[in-house]
Amino acid sequence: MPTVAATPSLPYPMWSSQMIGKPLRTFFPTITTNCMGYLDGVAEKYAGGRGAQLRGWGWDTAANVAVDRVLFADNLGVVLGAAGGGASRPDVPQTLPQVRSQTTGWQGYVGITSRPVQAWGIMRAPATVCRFPPASATGGETM
To answer: How far apart are CA 101 and CA 3, in angstroms?
Structure first.
């Protein structure tokens, strides 16, 4: 069970501030399947229903690099949060030799919603995202 933490506001990455509350497709009209990764789940929930910290990992298979930016959107496509990459995940290349980085992990924040949340990795290809499915049936898409 994730711990509950108090926070005055969610610490979204600075690069994502103009995207929060707007349609994902406004910024990223192209969807690809050239990625690997998962939304591992909720790491923490914040008091008062303000939000949650989500974690996962991502790999851009077209560019052969770790995904360093992730957006969270609801099932209507509205951006609700964001994550930064570069976290250590040595388990990923140990399991998947085609992934040549130990820093494929990401973590970020999302405002709580009654709708499911999806994780979208921002690819190196211009204006392109790729969806990271939940790692398990309780992998964080619903909170």
So the answer is: 29
